[in-house]
Design brief:
Order of helices and strands: HEHHEEHEEEHEE
Strand content: 25-35%
Largest sheet: 6 strands, mixed
CATH class: Alpha Beta
Helix content: 40-55%
Distance between the termini: 29 Å
Number of strands: 8
Shape: elongated
Structural class: alpha+beta
Radius of gyration: 16 Å
Number of domains: 1
CATH architecture: 2-Layer Sandwich
Length: about 160
Amino acid sequence: MQDAIKDRKLRNYPFSVIFVDVDDFKKINDDYGHLVGDIVLKELATIFRFYLRANTIIGRLGGEEFAVLLPGVELKDAVKIAERLRKIIENREIKVESNGVKKLKVTASFGVTEVKDDDTVESVLMRADEAMYRAKKKGKIELKLCYEDSYHRRDRFCRQAYR
């Protein structure tokens, strides 16, 4: 990510970040077991690989959180990508075996931000995390958008983008 921030500063090359957190993942592990939880995480990774561009960088941050790094993508397009992923995840049935075959449905909350000229790795990750946290607090299955807003004269302005 450090290289992407440098590219942003030197070449004005856009770069956005999406944080994804599986809603109620602890309940999935508690109700169905950790093996089913692992299946859910693998299914999400499959969705990301299938629906995102080849130059997209996807990483698991730990637990049920993922970061999606989108080189060359401006904020407005990152929001569209996050919304598309949210819908795909929400509509996907995950087949699991837990006392017979079951179809599990999961949802996820999203935080989206774009790298700015004065950003550090920490500031970008903090904004995306804050947006995702607000989505969780708002009632999950949400997409939150964090961006600079000079009209409001604040460094960060978070609002609900969709839902």
